[in-house]
Amino acid sequence: MAKVFQEITDELKDFIIKQHIFFVATAPLNPTGHVNLSPKGLDSFRILSPNRVAYLDLTGSGNETSAHLQENGRITFMFCAFSGSPVILRLYGIGTTVLPNSDEWEFLYSLFPKTPGTRQIITADIHRVQTSCGHGVPIYQHESNRDNIMKWADKKGEQGLKEYQQQKNVVSIDNLPTPLQEIMNS
User: Which whole-number Å values give the CA distances from 123 to 13, 33, 75, 128, 186, in the listed order?
Assistant: First the structure.
């Protein structure tokens, strides 16, 4: 049975910290637009308070989350127990994109390991925390994190990453602008 909480409790915080993967979902307002659902890993998620979270967002082939947040702010995070007791945890919130030129950047970035290819930090104010059973989630064993994205970013270099982001990360697949568009064009 689903349980709803007003905030991330200590028990749920412990659960989140143990997870090796989480999922981020966002959607545009346009009903014909594409819903985005992305898996995330590495050491990239932080609980800032019982109702505020952040994750380190690395350069990728698109930037849907950032575009959707700029348009409407809606974001959902999902964590699944792939070992131990079955549980699914969803965090519903309103998110924002924090760019390297933001006043918040230095503080937030200091909470994460320095990772090649870092593009932005996504923060969210959480207004609903919900668990459900997770009985249908299979049991998996974590072997290791992949380092492909870090190697790719190192090979691209700072200028190469900027060029890639200009080409791939300033608008969504639905042609919505992202916050990166503003700093890339200034």
Answer: 16, 23, 10, 15, 24
Task: Give the tokens for residue 95.
Answer: 């998110």
Give the integer Cα–Cα distance in Å for 102 and 56: 14
Q: What is the DSSP string of 159-182?
A: HHHHHHHHHHSSB-TT--B-HHHH
Partner residues linked to 17 by β-bridges? none
- The CATH superfamily holding the domain 3-178 is Electron Transport, Fmn-binding Protein; Chain A (2.30.110.10)
pLDDT digits over 34-71, tens only?
Answer: 999 999 999 999 999 999 999 999 999 999 999 999 99
Provide DSSP, 40-94: E-SS-EEEEETTEEEEEEE--S--HHHHHHHHT-EEEEEEE-SSSS--EEEEEEE
Question: What does the domain layout of the chain look like in residue ranges?
Answer: 3-178
- pTM comes to 0.94
